[in-house]
Write a structure and sequence with these properties.
binds magnesium ion, four-stranded antiparallel β-sheet, binds fructose -6-phosphate
Length: about 375
């Protein structure tokens, strides 16, 4: 069996209603497009999901990462879906499709991408996490807990193949430079950066003992791509599990505490990341709070046996209840920080337009 590639490519092509969810006809259209690619042999398998207003294409194939054919397929699917969204006058139709011409790779053109190529193990459990109303920095804390914190992941202490630790690749989104940290030795160094989750993003994680890829996230910052506020870079994340990687329960445990992330209402507020079932991924209260869903698969000869809706479990009810309390607590701050993002994180939103208007009225004081 050749190496297989798992590609998750997503875009907001239009919301139903407002930015809260996706219309079933859009998902149907995407399924039809990908089914054709499966019968032509380009894809081994696929699964179409949605989280809030984001259309999520989960695909397996043997073309490797950054394949122009696979990216082209995703692009054409988003274009088709945009055409339908425009016809239906869905909200923000084509929101994440920032270019008219495709040049071989969707990166930098609006959609978010997470891809990993690996040799399928004897049994290959993976989870694809998909979030709405937040940004790629949302994964930093969970990835730290899953792959670096023994209070979260017992296997770091107990399992000899994980005991050496992991390597984290961290991207500086402003400078577009990446650095690799060795964990646990460099935990304190790394946290200087990944704690600043809007600037430094955890992009990839490898097992240190054999360099096997363990996790890959999407790191496109839509606002930085477009240079102005055009919508949300709602992120995705792929994690491999078991047999020398964190167990399913250790990976999900990374989301048991509903920590604060950026991206709620107008991409301008902090709020708790609420893990929900597929059917509850419709952010409504103040366009939120931010949601994350988890689609579990066994990958079998490249086929996606799934999805299992991993947060559809009463053991996450308490997390959701805490998230609701935090939602209420944060909301009472209204336009005040730390509910609203600090000004420097809002420089690409519509707010600078307001402060520009008042610029002349600020006078030097002695
Ligand atoms: C946040 C989000 C929404 C919109 C808000 C305003 O990520 O997508 O909160 O920012 O609904 O949307 P517009 O400007 O399209 O009216
Ligand atoms: Mg939208
Ligand atoms: Mg969205």
């Amino acid at each position: 069996m050749p190496k297989i590639t798992l590609s998750v490519i997503k875009a907001d092509v239009g919301g139903w209603v407002g930015h809260s969810s996706s219309h079933p006809d859009i998902l149907e259209l995407a399924k039809n497009d990908l089914a054709k690619a499966k019968s032509s042999g380009l894809l081994i398998d696929f699964c179409v999901l949605r989280c809030g207003d984001d259309l999520e294409l989960i695909m397996t194939h043997t073309r490797g990462e950054n394949s122009p054919d696979i990216h082209g397929l995703a692009w054409d699917t988003f274009k088709d879906a945009t055409d339908l969204a425009k016809k239906m006058k869905l909200y923000g139709a084509g929101q994440d499709i920032l270019s008219d011409t495709f040049s071989g790779n969707v990166k930098g053109m609006g959609p978010g991408v997470a891809e990993m190529e690996f040799e399928e193990r004897k049994s290959e459990p993976v989870i694809v996490f998909m979030a709405d109303k937040t940004s790629p920095g949302a994964w930093n804390l969970a990835l730290y807990k899953i792959f670096a914190d023994p209070f979260n992941t017992a296997g770091l202490v107990i399992d000899p193949s994980m005991h050496d630790g992991f390597k984290f690749e961290v991207l500086d989104v402003k400078k577009q430079e990446a650095i690799i940290f060795t964990i646990p030795e460099e935990i304190y160094d790394m946290l200087v950066f990944t704690g600043a989750r809007e600037r430094y993003l955890t992009r990839r994680v490898w097992r240190k003992s054999d360099n096997e890829i363990a996790a890959v996230s999407s790191t496109q910052k839509l606002a930085l791509i477009a240079g102005k506020y055009v919508g949300k870079d709602d992120p995705v994340l792929i994690v491999r599990m078991q047999s020398g990687f964190p167990a399913v329960g250790e990976v999900l445990e990374g989301f048991a505490f509903p920590y604060l992330v950026a991206g709620w209402m107008r991409g301008s507020h902090n709020g708790p990341l609420m893990p929900v079932s597929f059917k509850d991924a419709n952010p409504t209260r103040f366009d939120g709070p931010p949601r994350v869903i988890a689609a579990g698969f066994q990958i079998t000869n490249g086929h996606l046996i799934g999805p299992r809706d991993m947060f559809d479990d009463p053991s996450f009810d308490y997390t959701r209840k805490v998230a609701e309390e935090i939602t209420d607590y944060m909301r009472r701050h209204g336009p005040f920080e730390p509910h609203r993002l600090p000004l420097e994180d809002m420089e690409y939103t519509t707010l600078p337009g307001v402060s520009k208007k008042l610029k002349e009225r600020f006078k030097k004081v002695k």
